[in-house]
């Protein structure tokens, strides 16, 4: 893209030059801040990605442990364990709540689980397999904890990915479009102002030359008028013609010049 198409269409004045310089300073500062924000988000993005990988790796073992615990509980307490557990549960004791965490201006959702009230199903499976049922419950609580953490990481991962893309687009726009356009505009305004200054200087020189010629013409006219008046005075005093008086004045002037040189 040529420089003509990359500059703004503005009037080249000193005021506009100041405005463009101020906009360039603002664009430079904004670019630096957005670059720092992008770097901070990228660091956080990589940390979250590492946590997601490690969490998914550990999730396989934990889910396997939970499944085996459920199988053991069914083996010990019988296949009708589902009805027994449901009869002893009135409301959910394990709940999830969310809040937002600010990271470099980006609000990331964060989920965490909590136990609402006391657990009232401690007597579940008291007749048969109570210990296995409690072990199965603990295993699944740990699985839920891991799933909540993974949901937080996945949601933050997607939010950060979109924020990084948006920030990088703004950084690239400032670096490759806005700043070069402002710099080209400033260069254009400076060139036009220099050209106007040269035109003003040339105009002043022409005016001074014209005034000087006018002054010289006025001096020559005044000198000719004075010589004419002097020739008339000499002609009247000596009774000669005006041309003879002019000749006498020219001879006198020539003699004075010869004496000087």
Topology:
Blueprint: H1 3-6, H2 14-77, H3 81-88, E1 94-103, E2 106-115, H4 130-238, H5 242-260
Antiparallel strand pairs: 1-2
Key words describing this protein structure:
disordered N terminus; mainly alpha; 261 residues
Give me the strand/helix succession.
Answer: HHHEEHH
Helicity, as a percent range: over 70%
Unreliable stretches (pLDDT < 50, length at least 5) are: 1-5
Overall number of strands: 2
Numbering strands along the chain, what is their spatial order in the largest sheet? Answer: 1-2
What structural category do the secondary elements indicate? mainly alpha
Keywords: Coiled coil, Ion transport, Transport
Pfam families: ATP-synt_D
Coiled coil: 179-232
GO molecular function: proton-transporting ATPase activity, rotational mechanism
Folded structure, characterized:
By secondary structure, the chain is mainly alpha-helical. The chain has a domain at 12-192: Helix Hairpins. Helix content is 78%, strand content 8%. It has helices spanning 3-6, 14-77, 81-88, 130-238, 242-260, and strands spanning 94-103, 106-115. Strand 1 (94-103) and strand 2 form a beta hairpin. Helix 2 (14-77) packs antiparallel against helix 4 and helix 4 (130-238) crosses helix 5. It is rod-shaped, with a radius of gyration of 49 Å. Residues 1-5 have low confidence and may be disordered.
